[in-house]
Specification:
Number of domains of chain A: 2
Low-confidence stretches of chain A: none
Radius of gyration of chain A: 21 Å
Oligomer: heterodimer
Radius of gyration of chain B: 36 Å
Number of domains of chain B: 2
Number of helices of chain A: 14
Helix content of chain B: 25-40%
Number of strands of chain B: 23
Strand content of chain B: 15-25%
Shape of chain A: globular
Order of helices and strands of chain A: HHHHEEEHHHHHHHHHH
Structural class of chain B: alpha+beta
Distance between the termini of chain B: 118 Å
Largest interface: A-B, 50 and 42 residues
Number of helices of chain B: 23
Number of strands of chain A: 3
Strand order of the largest sheet of chain A: 1-2-3
Largest sheet of chain B: 7 strands, mixed
Mean pLDDT of chain B: 87
Helix content of chain A: over 70%
CATH class of the largest domain in chain B: Alpha Beta
Shape of chain B: elongated
CATH superfamily of the largest domain in chain B: DD-peptidase/beta-lactamase superfamily
Strand content of chain A: under 5%
Structural class of chain A: mainly alpha
């Protein structure tokens, strides 16, 4: 047995993650305008993240299945708590101040929802009959609505999607899926009136960023300029003028992809896309090979969620999705989402490495 | 049957596998969407975004050119540019303008007008440019700003060149001044030419030759960050300095004229007969143009506006006066052109004249008359009755046409903006106004009264034509243009605009002889200035009525503002004219006593320079600006 196997780490997945980590540090070093502060900070977070991954990878899936509901309930409690005592920041209550660091309960839900759903669904015959779907729906909607209340629409939608992916993979009937989509479509006009002004603005900006180029459209215009000016080959490492001259906001967090696109061009982007697709497809392979419903539902939905983050972030940076504040997974600067992500990877590692392989 | 859920492992696996396959297909399709979007941004629209990025990065800043300097004919500086420290603000970089202004007020002196002016600029500024808050910071203030600079975002301390008129009010009506570009000018000018330039010529030469003085704007391409802070210069195209202008004006002579007019209102014009060059262009009182450069404060401006002496009026080209008896030499020449006119024929002057069939008496300035006078004596003694009769004989149409040929009622075309036309009346002119020409108006035209009006410049130009024996030259301020780089001087050439033909060339001699006797003759009206002159002066006095007078007019008892204007025209030396002069002293009384001595002083200064030691700078002190 190799070292990785001994540590319950999946070799291809581990290397894929390592490649993304390296890319992240490279690009954050540049986005930090040559200052090592950001890159070193993120490096330390990666160390913590890998530790979490390693830790989670040791927990066998059946154990996770057993804890699923508890984790879910803890998460739900925390979500209620954050609405009551949570610290406010930028007009939203998302954090609980733990003294040492701020803690976002919604991060837990990113894992807890697929875990709880996989746990619930895997004990029922699949494809799930309608009552089961209804219960699952309630499991999804309760935390979703709590997160909407914070308000953090972006995370709410992503958390909900993680649950829906689980349902989808479990084989939820197409007609139910279609009915759901129809309901969502019907609810959109109604939901619009519940949106905060800034949320409406973000969505409107998507359709006409030039309407207010120095206001709400600024992010997206500067981001598109960065991406577009990168061209096929990019301007080269450290040569992102949009970033170095501070035109691009949030250049090391949500809009880090724009820096990458400007410096490395389409060629560089295809490399980074390949790395992401490799990790995603490896995740799917793990799901495919998983030996029980819980494991494969969880593996599948975590992988899909990972891809969704990637898609939403890049869609947002390139101006085809509204600016919802979703970081680019593994690359963006930031702590708590990285820890969640690494925990998810740990789960995938665990699923892959705890299989009972029949020895010939 | 118990409702125990049965799990069908193979079915679940099959369903899961198919769903996973769908997921993979969707993932690949979505990735392709992103790739397509990126191809659209980075390949198809690359050029567009690259341009935008470049525009973001490169900030093109105008470098204002150095305005051309203005000199007098001897190279004395009339307008120059001096470096001054200015305190400027780039509004884009200021988060809280009020707080900043408050902060600055603690560092340098800021007066209310400074702030008002700044706020006015703020409201109408033409895009991204720095605005001037204060000029002329002293060294200490500049140092304090420099020290506090890191805490003052958006504040710039600039060493700018500022227009300065070292002679103050001397020749202000000729040179004019520059001032801040105002809204009406903003709409008229080519803004690209004025990028970075805050001033424009408002009056005088500064206004007339704005195009030569301005120069060409330079450009500096700097890399700037999102906050407009310049990081480094990429490219620099130096501005082209404006052309230096040399005027025909003689600052010393100008000073002499202005000094002679101190405490009075009036104008002196001196021309060079051979060229039409303007040697003196004086309008008094003057005012200091320097405060106008950065916007004069409203209180000082109101003082100037409300000054009863009206210093802001350019009397040289906008003051319009009845020429009075200075019209007589021209009418004398007109008479000589009439075929059956005998210059030796005498007229009995009893001190008054009456049109046949009219009871109105036209008085002579000499109560009991000049006795028998011929044309020569009529000019010398300025006999009104002779010219009343002559006017009736010549008729208004002839007088109108002849005087018009000397430029009466016609703009001289001097290279200044806003010259007044004067007025040479005629029956047609009255008809156009729906009025009737009265015979009496013909009579008074003979002595330069009635509706006829001339500007001092017109009068000087007409005298210049007399001195030139009929050759008409356009009066000209600009002497030469100097290229600031090559130092090559481009001289302007005299512009002949016509020739007055007389039937006998001796007419000029006869007229000159009469005008000489005005100054040097025993009975000449200006004999007081002639008896001790070292050269011959050909002149003519004039007194123009401000209010209609009857027999009771007494100069001493009439309020000063209602007293007659004093005029004098002259050229000298009479046999070889070097200078032609027109002097107008508002409410000065008699031309002989108020205007002629000023002309004499000027002629002496010009023709006998060794005896004079008046300098422009001493006159500058005397005007006490």
């Amino acid at each position: 047995m190799t070292v990785l196997q001994r540590l319950h780490l999946d070799k291809p997945f581990f290397y894929g993650v390592l490649v993304l980590t390296t890319l992240s540090l490279l690009i954050l070093y540049s986005a930090g305008a040559g200052e090592t502060r950001v890159a070193v900070g993120q490096g330390l977070r990666f160390v913590a993240g890998f530790a979490v991954m390693l830790l989670v990878a040791q927990i066998p899936p059946y154990q996770l299945a057993r804890w699923s509901l508890h984790i879910y309930l803890i998460g739900l409690t925390l979500l209620v708590l954050v609405l009551v005592v949570g610290a406010s920041g930028r007009g939203a209550q998302r954090w609980i101040d733990l003294g040492l660091f701020n803690f976002q309960p919604s991060e837990i839900m990113k894992l807890a929802i697929p875990m709880a759903l996989a746990g619930y669904l895997s004990r029922r015959p699949l494809p799930p009959p309608l009552p089961v779907v209804a219960v699952a729906g309630a499991l999804i909607l309760t935390p979703t609505l709590l997160i909407v209340r914070q308000p953090d629409l972006g995370t709410a939608v992503l958390v909900m999607m993680a649950g829906l992916f689980t349902l989808f993979l479990a084989g939820m009937r197409w007609r139910v899926i279609i009915a759901m989509l129809a309901t969502v479509a019907a609810l959109i006009p109604m939901a619009w009136t519940y949106l905060h002004d800034y949320q409406k603005q973000r969505i409107l900006t998507l359709f006409s960023p030039d309407a207010d180029p120095l206001g709400t459209g600024y992010h997206i215009i500067q981001s598109m300029i960065a991406v577009g000016s990168g061209g096929l080959y990019g301007k080269g490492w450290f040569n992102s003028s949009q970033t170095q001259l501070e035109y691009l906001p949030e250049s090391s967090t949500d809009f880090v992809f724009a820096v990458f696109a400007e410096e490395f061009g389409l060629i560089g982007i295809l490399v980074i896309f390949a790395a992401y697709l490799f990790v995603v497809l490896r995740g799917f392979t793990i799901a495919f090979h998983a030996q029980d419903s819980y494991a494969r539902l969880l593996a599948g939905s975590l992988t899909l969620t990972f891809f969704l983050y990637f898609f939403v972030n890049i869609g947002m940076v390139t101006g085809i999705l509204p600016v919802v504040g979703v970081p680019l997974p593994m690359i963006s600067y930031g702590g708590s989402s990285l820890v969640t992500l690494m925990a998810a990877f740990g789960i995938l590692m665990s699923i892959q490495t705890h299989r009972k392989i029949l020895q010939a | 049957m118990l409702d125990i859920p049965l799990k069908d492992y193979f079915r679940e696996t099959r369903v899961f596998t198919s769903r996973l396959t769908i997921a993979i297909v969707v993932v690949l399709l979505m990735t392709l969407t992103l790739v397509a979007r990126l191809v659209y941004l980075q390949v198809i629209n690359h050029r567009h975004f690259a341009t935008l990025s470049q525009e973001n990065r490169i900030n093109t800043r105008p470098i204002p050119p150095v305005r051309g300097r203005i000199f007098d004919r001897n190279g004395l500086v009339l307008a120059e540019n001096l470096p001054v420290f200015t305190l400027e603000i780039i509004p884009e970089q200021v988060a809280d303008m009020n707080a900043l202004l408050e902060q600055l007020a603690g560092i340098v002196q800021l007066r209310a007008p400074d702030i008002e002016d700044f706020e006015k600029q703020l409201r109408r500024r033409p895009g991204f440019e720095s605005l001037t808050l204060r000029t002329h910071l002293n060294d200490e203030e500049a140092a304090r700003i420099a020290v506090n600079r890191p805490y003052l975002d958006g504040v710039e301390l600039q060493a700018r060149l500022q227009r300065y008129y070292p002679l103050g009010g001397l020749g202000v009506h000729a040179v004019g001044y520059v001032g801040r570009i105002d809204e009406s000018e903003l709409g008229r000018i080519d803004r690209s030419v004025y990028r970075g330039t805050q001033h424009i010529g408002k009056l005088g030469i500064e206004q007339r030759y704005e195009d030569l003085l301005l120069g060409g704007v330079g450009i500096e391409k700097v890399e700037a960050n999102a906050y407009g802070r310049a990081l480094r210069t990429m490219e620099r195209i130096a501005p082209d300095a404006g052309q230096n202008l040399y005027l025909n004006l003689d600052a010393d002579l100008q000073a002499t004229a202005e000094k002679a007019l101190i405490g009075r209102r009036g104008s002196v014009i001196a021309l060079e007969p051979a060229t039409g060059n303007v040697l003196v262009f004086a309008s008094m009182p003057t005012y200091d143009p320097n405060p106008f450069v950065n916007g004069i404060d409203p209180d000082s401006y109101r003082l100037l506006l409300e000054d009863p002496d009206k210093p802001l009026i350019n009397r040289a080209v906008n003051g319009q006066y009845a020429p009075g008896s200075t019209i007589k030499p021209f009418l004398a020449l007109a008479a000589m052109q009439v075929a059956d006119f005998d210059p030796t024929e005498t007229v009995m002057c009893p001190g008054w004249f009456r049109l046949p069939g009219s009871r109105r008496r036209f008085r002579d300035w000499k109560k009991y008359g000049h006795g028998k006078v011929d044309l020569h004596e009529a000019v010398v003694q300025s006999c009104d009755v002779f010219f009343y009769k002559l006017a009736v004989r010549l008729g208004i149409d002839y007088m109108h046409d002849f005087l018009s040929s000397f430029g009466f009622g016609i703009r001289t075309g001097i290279d200044m903006i806003g010259e007044s036309k004067g007025l040479m009346p005629s029956p047609e002119w009255k008809r156009a106004r729906g009025e009737v020409w009265y015979p009496g108006e013909t009579v008074v035209t003979g002595i330069g009264q009635g509706p006829v009006l001339v500007t001092p410049l017109q009068l000087a130009t007409a005298v210049n034509t007399l001195a030139n024996r009929g050759t008409k030259l356009r009066p000209r301020m600009l002497r030469s243009i100097e290229d600031p780089k090559t130092k090559v001087l481009q001289q302007t050439v005299p512009e002949r605009i016509g020739e007055i033909k007389v039937t006998d060339a001796h007419d000029w001699d006869k007229l000159t002889a009469s005008m000489i006797d005005v100054v040097h003759g025993e009975k000449g009206t200006a004999r007081r200035i002639g008896w001790n002159a070292e050269y011959k002066i050909a002149g003519k006095t004039g007194t123009s009525q401000v209010v209609a007078q009857d027999e009771a007019y007494d100069e001493e008892s009439t309020p000063e503002r209602l007293r007659d204007h004093a005029l004098f025209i002259a050229f000298a030396p009479a046999d070889d004219p070097q200078i032609a002069v027109a002097v107008v002293v508002e409410n000065g009384g008699h031309g002989s006593s108020a205007a002629a001595p000023i002309a004499r002083e000027l002629l002496d200064a010009y023709l006998l320079p060794s005896k004079m030691n008046t300098t422009a700078s001493s006159a500058h002190d005397a005007t006490g600006d």
